[in-house]
Amino acid sequence: MYQIVPVAPGEQQMSGGTGGSPLKKKLAHEGRPLVMAGFLGCVLVLAAVVAWCYYSVSLRKAQLMKTELLDLNKDGFIIRNQAGAVIFTMTFRSGTLDLDSCSKEGNILSCTQSASGKLNFFIQTVRPKDTVMCYRVRWEELQNKHNVEHAMTYNGSHWYGGAETATQYWPIRIQGEEEPRPFITSDIYSDRNAFGGILERYWLSSNATAIKINDSVPFHLGWSVKDRSLRFQARYQDSPFRPPQGQEALPELSYRVCVGSDVTSIHKYMVRQYFAKPIKVPSTEVFKKPVWSTWALHKTAVTQEKLLRYASDITKHGFTCSHLELDDRYTADYGEFDFDPQKFPNASGMFDQLREDGFQVTLWTHPFINYDSINFGVAVEKGLFVREPSGELPALVRWWNGIGGILDFTNPETREWYYSHLRMLKTRYDVTSFKFDAGETSYLPRQFSTFVPLSDPSTFTRRYTEMAIPFSERAELRVGYQSQNISCFFRIIDRDSVWGYELGLKSIIPTVLTVSILGYQFVLPDMIGGNAYPNRTAGGLDGKNGLPDRELYIRWLELSAFMPAMQFSIPPWAYDDEVVQIAQKFTELHETLVAPRVLELAGELLDTGDPIIRPLWWIANDDEAAYKIDSQFLIGDDLMVAPVLEPGKQERDIYLPAGRWRSYKGEHFDKGPMYLTDYPVDLDEVAYFTWVHL
């Protein structure tokens, strides 16, 4: 027996001799196509197996990169809502993930490599309640020391929050291209492109998404109008942020994104989770009756005689007063804590007279001691100042009233020294409280050292706000960072006597809504009519009396009557009897209509954190029009206010969300949502509407 074995071309035959038989040659010739077909078949099967394996791996990888409505890829991640629509997009700008280094364990996606080296990256899914889904995100560089940057795209939604700004819009409007810069408290009156004195690392979207940047991040904020995005960056290089002592300067960007069923409910969740709440309501008198300040009227030329005359005029014209605020400058030098005997020859007698006439008085204070003050040497000797980086010498700073040192409120000795002087003023003259001015980190030197090292410069602002706690019943601050539990009034930065969005009348509602969303509810909206600075006043100051525009003053007064508190400086009687009558009408309306509702809401927010002054979308979160309205607001859920904010107008368009509303004129509207076009509002009126409960 023999076996015929097909032989591949080129193989040597095993038979003896060099040639083959004709039969073998024929068989070999006929077997070649079969061999080729078999070979190709094996290749195709192998290719199919490889493709299937690759597909399976890709499918598993795709599934691996998904978690609870979030899809991760090497360049970023997206979050969808239950309907499948993309509602949040974050792009990794500083690097890409190596997806081969990623794994999924339970509710955590993690990766160990980026294109530039080792890192610690994870996204953890947390469902704190049925209607809320949160994602904890962390990108920590383990080799790269430059920066970590993620860009949040607007996705066609409206965003709110962040910071008080000089030109304030509601919702946020990004303009131009801005490289990320330190997100720290600054004086936006002097630097109008900076972030303001009240800020938090929190933003909220009409898509019912919210983001909170972690406190540990060396946080810088930029934006791009071209990409429609906010740029979140972590870095230590060329930055005032410092790594915690003993840690390497490796940047880390971490934050939490939460998604809810609607914008109001997700904001309520975020506030309860991340913001401290006030522990008490400040003095009810400040909510009911106006504060009267000497600043816009007298500036630094205030004297004992002028203060007593001001108080007398308030009484003579029939106005009430929660307290008189004696502003800059009652001391001989900045950094002293007693009265200038030239300007106030009998301060004790002055206070006795004011007290007898029914006035309580607060005093202006600040964190600076000028070099020509007698207290400068004392502070140097005791080590009370913020110091140069070496820690040997006090750091000199320039502020709007000169050059001096700035007190270091991280130092317990400084805090006690400062507090003891304020307590002395309170005891000696029966001073009611204090207006704490400044406190922004922009007044710290570029390079500095403090008693307790500051990783985040804005912690200085937090320490300064704590000085108001013993006086919080009637205290006033103009800065806030993680300071929501300081139970005093927060004043928005000085307004110019102009109509527009840059520190003018139109900026007040967007600013109050913004700081309210950031958790600061006891808002003082600065002085009626603005500060009357000569070069920053609409149409210039009146040559005869140096006053802001009369119509502007009246419209400002009317808006202020619906804010949590009112503050006068330039008095109504500086104009004419009609202005006095309008002012009396609206201070009375504030006390009888607004203050009771505000105080009721103030009591509730100690538990809820809900704002007193609310945007229209608070009660209409499925209404696209409500997300864009910046000239109307709610007090609670049932009182809507629509002031006139344009010169020469005695009418305005008003948007009524769905519901039944009754106007201040007694009209009923129940077919909303609707626009009331050219709704008449006389010069002595504010349009307001109350919700009619069925």
How would you describe the overall organization of this protein?
- It comes from Parambassis ranga.
- Pfam families: Glyco_hydro_31_2nd, Glyco_hydro_31_3rd.
- It is a single chain.
- This protein has 694 residues and is of the alpha+beta class.
- It has a domain at 67-274: Immunoglobulin-like (Sandwich).
- It is 25% helix and 25% strand.
- The protein is built from twelve helices and 35 strands.
Largest sheet: 8 strands, antiparallel
- Rg (CA only): 34 Å
State which percent range the strand residues make up.
Answer: 15-25%
Query: Could you say which overall geometry the principal axes of the C-alpha atoms support?
Result: globular
Structural class: alpha+beta
CATH level-3 fold name of the domain at 67-274 = Immunoglobulin-like
**Biggest β-sheet: strands ordered side by side in the sheet:** 1-2-3-4-9-15-14-11
Helical content class: 25-40%
* Tally of individual helices: 12
* CATH first level of the domain at 67-274: Mainly Beta
User: Uncertain segments of ≥5 residues (pLDDT<50)?
Assistant: 1-20, 22-28, 55-63
| Multimeric organization | single chain
CATH architecture of the domain at 67-274: Sandwich
| Cα-to-Cα separation, first versus last residue | 107 Å
